[in-house]
């Protein structure tokens, strides 16, 4: 069996960083990254981007050396992706924050509203319901992160955790401040409004969860397979007939429900910002589905049936 | 961005500051800056940029920029008591949108934001000056 030689150059400076000889032809990029780490331990595999062309796309971990358009001496270019942090860590941190922060405001911990209100609970029933819903939402997210989601990338750049936590924690504090405020005004249409909002919220929570389960079942454990999602026996998944990312659709729906329930402008603004971000993600996902699968259902739109 | 804010959200909205000297200060600074800046763009587009304009754009800011910033900050500061008194652009609890906004506090935060932002922009311009003006010197020497 002929062995390959692999030389790794810096993509920017073209410096020779590493020379690997006697590499198996069926070695994967992942294995090569591990070998590279041996000589440069500060560049662990997650922060390596190896490509065939200095300005080209990163090679995937699963790519096999002999299947690449290289000679028996392969030249790979390296770019440092910067310090990485695992998706699971980021998700757990960014979701645990809102859960705890909201509760601080709900229980009226000192130094927020003034000594007269410390640890006094609100007299409005909707405020208690809102706390249950908000907490349920983030507990659900934490559990999904641990038990349901199957991530295709293990890591993301470290700076993202600061950006993401600022967003989630900041908005959680902002919303919680008003909902749990002693001067909070309950919804204009009273119990009817709260009931309707709760139904919307629960419906969308179930919907969102159903989609997460459906997506999980598309991908075997430990793999990175990508398949077209289709509706299953669960009626909540029938939204796949109309949109590519029904999980985002249901997520926006949940927050709209919460906004109606609390009749709180900051909640509406949070829903809007979330909607904008999720629309960007949905359009991207929709585009990659269309590129990857010739037989992708044409009726589907990214996030809002027929419209967006 | 800060131009629109100072003009509309501060000076126009708070009539009482319109006679302040600080307003004159930033208006003069902005006016001179813009006349030079747009001449720079115009001549650049015509591929005939007199060195004087390039020099002026990358040198006069050293004085004009702090002048403008001082005028802006003093104007905002002068507006504060009137904003507080009138409750300008502010909404307080309780209300049916469960939202509040205090323009007075907002203005104070804006003033504080000058502290990190101004040095960054100023040093960036100084850095640009070094790059652009020394480049021209080399050009002239090589001719």
H-E string of chain A: EEHEEEHHEHHHH
What is the number of strand segments of chain B?
0
Helix-strand makeup class of chain B = mainly alpha
Question: Quaternary arrangement of the chains shown?
Answer: heterodimer
- Outline the biggest β-sheet of chain A: 4 strands, mixed
* Strand/helix succession of chain B: HHHHH
Summarize model confidence as the mean pLDDT of chain B.
Answer: 92
Cα Rg of chain B: 20 Å
End-to-end C-alpha gap of chain B? 41 Å
Would you give an account of this structure?
The complex is a heterodimer of chains A (308) and B (143). Chain A is of the alpha+beta class and 308 residues long. Chain A has seven helices and six strands, in the order ββαβββααβαααα. The longest helix of chain A is centred in the middle third of the chain and has 29 residues. The relative contact order of chain A is 0.09. Chain B is mainly alpha-helical. Helices cover 78% and strands 0% of the residues of chain B. Chain B has five helices and no strands. Chain B is elongated and about 70 Å long. Chain B starts with a helix and ends with a helix.
Task: Summarize this structure as a short list of keywords or feature phrases.
heterodimer, A: 308 residues, alpha+beta, 4-stranded mixed sheet, two-stranded antiparallel ribbon, 6 strands, B: 143 residues, mainly alpha, 78% helix, elongated, transmembrane (chain A), fatty acid metabolism (chain A)
């Amino acid at each position: 069996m002929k062995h390959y030689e692999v030389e790794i150059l810096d993509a920017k400076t073209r410096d020779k960083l590493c020379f690997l000889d006697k590499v198996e032809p069926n070695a994967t990029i992942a294995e090569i990254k591990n070998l590279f780490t041996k000589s440069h331990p500060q560049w662990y595999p997650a922060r390596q981007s190896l490509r065939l062309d200095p300005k080209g796309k990163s090679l995937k971990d699963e790519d096999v050396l002999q299947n690449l358009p290289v000679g028996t001496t392969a030249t790979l270019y390296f770019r440092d992706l910067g310090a990485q942090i695992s998706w699971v860590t980021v998700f757990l941190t960014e979701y645990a924050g809102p859960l705890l922060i909201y509760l601080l405001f709900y229980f009226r911990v000192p130094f927020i509203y003034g000594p007269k209100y410390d640890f006094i609970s609100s007299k409005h029933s909707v405020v208690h319901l809102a706390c249950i819903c908000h907490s349920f939402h983030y507990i659900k997210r934490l559990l999904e992160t641990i038990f349901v989601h199957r991530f295709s990338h293990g890591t993301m750049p470290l700076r993202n955790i600061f950006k993401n936590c600022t967003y989630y924690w900041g908005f959680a504090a902002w919303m919680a401040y008003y909902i749990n405020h002693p001067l909070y005004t309950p919804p204009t249409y009273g119990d009817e409004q709260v009931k309707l909002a709760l139904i919307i919220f629960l419906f969308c929570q179930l919907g969102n969860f159903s989609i997460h389960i459906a997506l999980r079942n598309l991908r075997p454990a430990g793999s990175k397979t990508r398949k077209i999602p289709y509706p299953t026996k669960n009626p909540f998944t029938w939204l796949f007939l109309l949109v590519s990312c029904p999980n985002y659709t249901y997520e926006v729906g949940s927050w709209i429900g919460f906004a109606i329930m609390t009749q709180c402008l900051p909640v509406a603004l949070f829903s809007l910002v979330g909607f904008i971000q999720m629309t960007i993600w949905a359009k991207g996902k929709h585009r990659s589905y269309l590129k990857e699968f010739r037989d992708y259902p044409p009726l589907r739109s990214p996030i809002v049936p027929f419209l967006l | 961005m800060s131009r629109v804010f100072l003009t509309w959200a501060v000076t126009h909205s708070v009539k009482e500051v319109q006679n302040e000297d600080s307003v004159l200060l930033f208006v003069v600074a902005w006016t001179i800056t813009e006349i030079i800046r747009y001449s720079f763009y115009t001549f650049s587009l015509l591929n005939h940029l007199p060195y004087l304009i390039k020099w002026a754009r990358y040198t006069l800011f050293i004085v004009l920029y702090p002048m403008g910033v001082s005028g802006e900050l003093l104007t905002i500061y002068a507006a504060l008591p009137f904003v507080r008194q009138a409750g300008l652009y502010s909404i307080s609890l309780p209300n049916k949108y469960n939202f509040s906004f205090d323009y007075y506090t907002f203005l104070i935060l804006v003033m504080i934001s000058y502290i990190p932002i101004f040095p960054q922009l100023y040093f960036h311009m100084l850095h640009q000056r070094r790059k652009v003006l020394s480049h021209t010197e080399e050009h002239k020497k090589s001719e």
